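Working notes for the structural subgroup meeting. M.R. asked for a predicted model of this chain before we commit to crystallization trials. I am recording the input and output together here so anyone reviewing the notebook later can reproduce the run.

Input as submitted:
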Amino acid sequence: MAKIGVMIEGQEGLTWERWRHICEDADQLGFDSLRRSEHFISVFGVDGRDCIECWTSLALAAEWTKRIELGPMVSPITFRPPSVLARIATAVDLLSDGRLILGVGAGWYEREHVENGIPFFTLGERFDMLEEGIKTIRATWARSNPKPPRQTIPLLMGGRGEKRGLPMIAREADEWNVGFDGPDKYTHQKKVLEESCRAIGKDPSTIRRSIMTSFLIGRDRTELRERAQRIGKVVPRYKDMAPDEVLKIAGESWLVGTPDEIAGKIEKMESLGIELFMLQHFLLDDRDALKLLASDVIPAVA
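Returned structure, recorded in token form:
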């Protein structure tokens, strides 16, 4: 059964009021997971956008929700000493009664490092930091008190690199998340991950497979066009496009359509072994879009 979660790009205009509404809606409407990015500035290069701090927002989400899984997707290992990140994660996990998933990554956005005085190392150095950092995180959980409710916290990792990324994910991750580049590429990447698992004697099925993708939903073509018109105000790529053009181009890589159409696309992708669909919700004030997903799409794919 496919699960659906809500992914928020916190650096693209998220405010505390918006975050509270999203937390309440995602929890009460029956989504499986609520995650948000950890960045300091817009990754679209739009200056002046609101961005609330990731871990403070997750601590509040732990209080504002009751059942939904929470987590960052993902926290760059360059931002904090791993032992500090481990303790922050423990605090949020305790507040949520064990509902946190800890997404960790190597970091990629050089501009936010430079502007915030954070050293930005080479890719190889950042992968070294990530690998050592995970060891430190686990060691911190083992020796510190209080401990996470489950003694440990599941790790989420993303990536598709065949030489280092996927083998590291096979060793360390409880969930693998990747952007969807089509069935052929995904099937190949999944095969590499499974082979990496078997090489170390790990059952590949113990790693949950999720993807992150964007969506535009509407009850009919009129609603779809209206949301397509608004998405250009958030995603610069679509700024000067007519609504029908947005729907055509976005539909090549996003989940776009009526609830039935989106459910059909999810079911086809689910056949590839994808268990969780994290849907980027760019229209942060559009509570009706989340309600429509929950009422018409979640039951259809469950």
